[in-house]
Design brief:
The chain has 19 helices and eight strands. Helix 11 runs antiparallel to helix 12 and helix 16 crosses helix 19.
Length: 450
């Protein structure tokens, strides 16, 4: 991103601005997120106070999806031949950065986007996000704004009744994500408002009641398994829990939680009990066996599907010319299945003494380990592990740029949470001491600046 002299879109005053015109995922995997965020090429005019986007030509390149898109703002009023002269050097940079074997035909046919929104839609479409999906999300956001801005429960209930078709699982997921973000950012009032709205939706919508029942039954299943575990959980006791499950939802939850216990030996025990039963009990047990066989089959098929997809993703990364870059690009797709696959493949490569594959797998694991611990959490761990105040001071000095108001808020929340949850006194004291040291360091730094 370069400092460029541009004219303010409102008053035309020349101002300096950070302008980014080339978004090339070949060298910068984060470029797409910057473009989609809408936070690029924003100017603040000191003369008229204008804040907004400045019109500049843009080139977007995604080699994996063979996308080369160009956008030239219509309001610039630039003739076509002049547009080509301005865009040409950016496209040349894209081509020059690619190895010869990756220079494909799509580079010769850049797709010109008539509007900036068209470019965004095309990028999202390549990611499998359709315009209809975007419109659905906008509908959810608009409904959420309406509900949050409505002052009385009666009015909200009426809106919920009218718009219940929009309140799907995606809406509840969005609501939960926003509440989590609000909590992380310390926006307690917003988080409370979202939690209150969620409670109303759970009560006043069919899906909400279904989700609440599912949640309640899952929690009940967890408690019953924990109680059985404390007394010594056996296959016979697990069978008793399944036989006594009061609802279909509880049964499904129990099977999902205890799938590993429903093995060949478990079904032998169930078959023996069926042979010994008579009348309604036998009928119930026979029906239960069919349900359990069907549920375990569904779970196993889903697990196998996830494992197959994870194995395919792993091979894609291993075959990439830049493993580190490929790992970072696919980070959002990693799950428990991927972790299990990579562990299995690592063990297999070691047994076969395949040093090249073993080394590549270790490189992926190192990146996963680094990414799994946010730098702020790592800094907290360093502070609570320091031997004394001098040690904490040295750690804070070395990570001065991370000691922000947000970090202090996180540290304070962790200290308060540890105390309310009844964690050991040494943990509570360590967090409180770390918070005081960080707060003292931040204040002293501010005094020095002033």
């Amino acid at each position: 991103m370069a400092q460029t002299r541009v004219n303010c879109p409102r008053c035309r005053t020349p101002i300096q601005a950070d302008v980014e015109q080339l978004f090339d995922l070949n060298i910068d995997p984060q470029a797409k997120q910057r473009l989609l965020s809408g936070g690029v090429n924003v100017v603040n005019c000191p003369t008229c106070g204008y804040t907004g986007n400045v019109s500049v030509p843009i080139v977007y390149h995604d080699p994996d999806k063979e996308l080369l898109l160009t956008f030239f703002p219509p309001d610039m009023g630039t003739p076509v031949n002049e547009q080509e002269r301005m865009i040409g050097p950016l496209i040349n940079r894209v081509v020059d950065r690619l190895p010869a074997e990756k220079r494909k035909a799509y580079l010769l046919r850049p797709q010109a986007m008539l509007t900036f929104q068209t470019m965004i839609d095309r990028i999202l479409e390549a990611d499998g996000i359709t315009k209809e999906m975007i419109e659905e999300q906008e509908q959810r956001l608009n409904l959420l704004r309406r509900l949050l801005s409505t002052s009385t429960p009666e009015a909200r209930e009426e809106i919920i009744r009218q718009e219940e078709s929009i309140i799907d699982e995606g809406f509840f997921m969005m609501l939960a994500q926003l509440a989590e973000v609000s909590m992380q950012q310390g926006e307690q009032r917003t988080a409370q408002a979202l939690a209150g709205l969620q409670a109303e939706l759970l009560e006043h919508t069919n899906l909400g009641r279904e989700l609440k029942e599912r949640s309640d039954e899952t929690q009940a299943a967890v408690r019953s398994l924990q109680e059985a575990q404390e007394k010594g959980l056996t296959r016979e006791k697990l069978l008793d829990l399944l036989v006594e499950a009061p609802t279909e939802t509880r049964l499904v939850a129990l099977v999902g939680l205890a799938r590993t216990g429903l093995d060949y030996q478990f079904f032998q025990i169930l078959s023996l009990r069926i042979e010994q039963a008579t009348g309604e009990e036998k009928t119930h047990l026979l029906t239960l066996r069919e349900k359990l066989l069907d549920l375990t089959r569904q779970i196993d098929e889903e697990i196998q599907k996830q494992m197959d997809e994870a194995a395919k993703l792993l091979e894609t990364i291993l075959n990439a010319p830049d493993i580190e870059k490929a790992t970072m690009e696919h980070m959002a797709e990693f799950n428990d299945a991927f972790v299990n696959v990579i562990k299995s493949e690592l063990q297999d490569a070691q047994q076969r003494q395949d040093g090249d594959r073993f080394g590549k797998l270790q490189r992926i694991i190192r990146i996963l380990q680094q990414a799994s611990t946010p730098p702020e959490v790592e800094l907290v761990e360093q502070l609570i592990g320091a031997a004394d105040e001098e040690g904490r001071r040295q750690i804070l000095e070395a990570n001065s740029e991370m000691v922000t108001s947000e970090f202090l808020q996180l540290l304070n929340q962790l200290a308060v949470q540890s105390e309310t949850e009844g964690q050991p006194a040494e943990v509570v004291n360590a967090l409180q001491t770390a918070y005081k040291s960080a707060m003292r360091f931040s204040m002293e730094r501010n005094f020095r600046k002033n």
